[in-house]
Specification:
It is built from ten helices and ten strands. The chain is α+β, with helices and mostly antiparallel strands.
């Protein structure tokens, strides 16, 4: 185990349709060099605030520097993101995991503009209200207080938007099917064309419904792997989701960057804590 402390905070009731989880990561330094620090795609955008330490995020092999006390958005991604930092020094980070069915209500831009990108939040909102909250968050004495202030700000954004019932229904339908629902069946159920559905997903989520279903299917396999790394591969449990082993390995490499066998031998404590039991 590394010297990483992970705390899970409960989002406010009013935000729970948009915010799945709030995580706080802290370390006094001396983290293992073997720790991967891989953030695996799960169909969710993230709000990230580093309040101690200097970080570089790698998303699809592109590097982004994240300074202290600046809020960033990690848009929905279909590739792994990696945190690069000085492991010998202390660091602290707050991560808001947004719900695929609700992020569009908090991030008022077409979501495809954020896909596979780390974007400063001030590019979406540079007004005086946000700047006031940013200053208050910076001055807050501990991460729990910072998280509460950020939730206050998100509440202001939420009341400015209306829910999209069709889109939210479609997200839950794909998740409930474990990613196995054909997109044509979903379009027919909603009474819309495949083209209309793809356009809605580009606007509301940032990826196509087919890609989202692939991520949901992969996440179900990934969580089963975490529960039993050896038995999952030996018993070929992936056959519940993929038509053959080659397809499964291809998808695994696409979303993590390693084969299942290779990944099982590596250390990725952060990713495994967050995504065990992802819902």
């Amino acid at each position: 185990m590394s010297r990483l402390t992970v705390k899970r905070l409960t989002p406010r009731m009013e935000l729970r349709k948009c915010v799945k989880d709030i995580w706080v990561f802290e370390s006094a330094g001396n983290l293992s060099e073997e720790e991967l620090q891989v953030v695996v795609p799960n169909g969710s955008a993230k709000l990230m605030l580093y309040y101690e330490g200097d970080f570089t995020g790698l998303v699809c092999q592109r590097a982004y520097r994240l300074p202290e006390h600046k809020l960033f958005i990690l848009g929905v991604s279909d590739c792994a993101a990696i945190a690069e930092f000085n492991r010998d020094k202390p660091f602290g980070c707050i991560c808001f995991e947004l719900h695929p069915a609700g992020a569009y209500r908090l991030l008022a831009v077409p979501q495809h503009e954020l896909r596979n990108n780390l974007v400063p939040f001030e590019e979406l909102d540079s007004g005086p209200v946000y700047r006031m909250f940013e200053e208050r968050i910076c001055l807050a004495p501990d991460p729990a207080q910072k998280a509460l202030l950020l939730q206050d700000y998100l509440m202001r954004l939420l009341v400015l938007t209306e829910p999209d019932a069709k889109f939210e229904y479609s997200i839950h339908a794909i998740r409930d099917s474990r990613g196995l629902l054909p997109v044509a069946d979903l379009s027919r159920d909603l009474g819309v064309s495949d083209r209309w559905l793809r356009a809605m997903y580009a606007e509301r989520l940032g990826i196509s419904p087919k890609t989202f279903a692939s991520i949901v299917r992969f996440q179900n396999c990934f969580q089963a792997l975490l529960r039993d790394k050896r038995g999952f591969l030996e018993n070929r449990q992936f056959q519940d989701y993929y038509y053959d082993q080659a397809h499964f390995i291809k998808e695994f490499k696409r979303f993590i960057g390693h084969s299942p066998a290779r990944y099982s031998s590596l250390q990725n404590e952060v990713g495994e804590i967050i995504y065990t039991g992802d819902r």
